[in-house]
Amino acid sequence: MTVALIAAFMTLLDVSIVNVALPSIQTDLGLSSGGLQWVLSGYALAFGLVLVPAGRFGDAHGRRRLFVLGLAGFTAASAAAGVADSELWLICARLVQGASAGVVNPQVSGLVQQMFKPAERGKPFGALGATIGISTALGPLLGGAIIAIAGTEDGWRWIFYINVPVGIVAIVLGTRWIPGHTGEEAPRRGVDPIGVVLLGAGVALVLLPLVQEREWHGPIVWLLILAGLVVLGLFVAWERLQMRRRASPLVDLTLFRRRSFALGSLLALAYFAGFTTTFFIFTLFLQNGLHYSALEAGLTVTPFALGSASGAMLGGRIVNRYGRVLVVTGLCMVIGGLALVILALHFVEGRGAGFATALPLLCAGIGSGLVISPNQNLTLSQVPVAEAGSAGGVLQTGQRIGSAIGIAAIGAVFFSRLATTDGNYADAFRTGLYVTIGFMVLALAAATADVIAGHRERPS
Fold this sequence. Notes:
about 450 residues, 2 domains
């Protein structure tokens, strides 16, 4: 489990650690604005495309094999990114990195299902939730620290180089310690190539306009989302046909008949739409608006990371006692914490904003830990071990789509407000947080619906 969590931390860290390095990368390689966008969003796009097929393949052929293969690809791509000397080289390396991360992560949640009994999964899912929260929140801090130590000229390269020794050690230990194929996984069967193509095309068509929202202009671009939804509809129809023919579907659609899985997936999508983007606009506010260094910007989000770690570990221990009510409590804390951040920035301006937001971010971080970890546990709790990898892939695909939606929606509001207020980053950040809170309220509605439905099902 330790090896699996290290790999998850490393791959998820690369979602956010690059944010603070973008100025250095642009200066060194002369990247265009479109190139910068692809360095950041290309990783997330490739990540999201392979999650479900990789999860299904791991279910059928053994999770250790896919884990090691994905980790090897990620390590090699990290080394390639570190030595990149052109825009195209770096973008291609980031795409391979993202795809490899998408191979690794479904195996981690699948291994929790495989190695622990249902009553024992709270703690490992708590650790996994803490890993997800900490890696995203600590990305700017670690990136800023590496750049401060290695220098602004070549420090960005060490953001990628640091993955190489860790990856090599994880590959060796993963080969030794992670269990191989057992009788509990799905039987060795096909991976539904038509389903893979339809799902991949549908997710790509939905994500591309979102990740390229600032580069592609004109209303016709948004027709790609409509086309993506049509392709995803065809994917659902094909999977139903596969189930009627008793063939091997890529995704067992009966999973969505389980209330916990359906509402938990919706909750994750809405929550990650707000959660991931918060650090994107916060970093811009701190570095461009308040002229914080990369390290100072990273230190400012540390209270959130510490709160997220403690909240996730606590949530993993008590989730079986309180269930989805714990998630509702966490969401209320996140919403309250973000509201207090807005209030603090109203009264404290200038470079003191970082200190003023520390306690509200700590509160929001604890709440986040009580959301991500317990939701992961509750959403996958009723999933059979044979479907654990593909179910985890579906859940994480929703998280990646949610992140892309959040970056597009909140980023559009942020930059629009920035333009109309003549570069007032504080005002633009506060406006972006209002949209973030809106996504959190949607997640709260899904969690509350699950709690209410659960109470109605209980015998009097």
